[in-house]
Design a protein that fits this description.
mainly alpha
Length: 137
């Protein structure tokens, strides 16, 4: 039974989109690098706060959704560490479930902070991956 509600996933999607929209599109590379040291914008803080409230089972499900969702929007084949065949980049519902479960299994031993960090590293595309995954797990 999922620990992470669709409502929470939708909230993360909204905050991820807001965070991305708050980034000026005309920033130079140096400005982007300098912004890493700045106080986080409210949109980024809200997203981080929500991610940091997740329990381990919730963070695990979020990572599995994020990575499984990636294969529905990116042009990358998926190869399971279980030796399964590659999966098409547009995963049919039944294959999506297999990939999702594979990621649950692969990341189950990672601690919560590591799982959350994986999501934070993908904040520019997190909303796309989660939107693709929402309702498919």
């Amino acid at each position: 039974m999922p620990q992470l509600s669709d409502t929470t996933v939708r909230e993360i999607i909204i905050l991820s989109e807001a965070r991305l929209a708050a980034i000026p599109k005309d920033q130079t590379r140096d400005q982007i690098l300098d912004s890493i040291l700045e106080v986080p914008k409210p949109e980024e803080k809200a997203l981080r706060d929500l991610l940091n409230k997740l329990s381990h089972p919730q963070a695990l499900e979020l990572v599995a959704m994020m990575y499984a969702g990636r294969y529905t929007v990116e042009n990358e084949p998926y190869e399971s560490d279980q030796g399964d065949e590659s999966v098409e980049e547009r995963l049919p519902r039944e294959k999506f479930e297999d990939v999702y479960k594979d990621h649950l299994r692969n990341f189950r031993h990672d601690d919560t902070a590591t799982l959350i960090s994986m999501c934070e590293q993908k904040t520019n595309v997190l909303h796309r991956y989660l939107t693709a995954a929402l309702g498919r797990r």
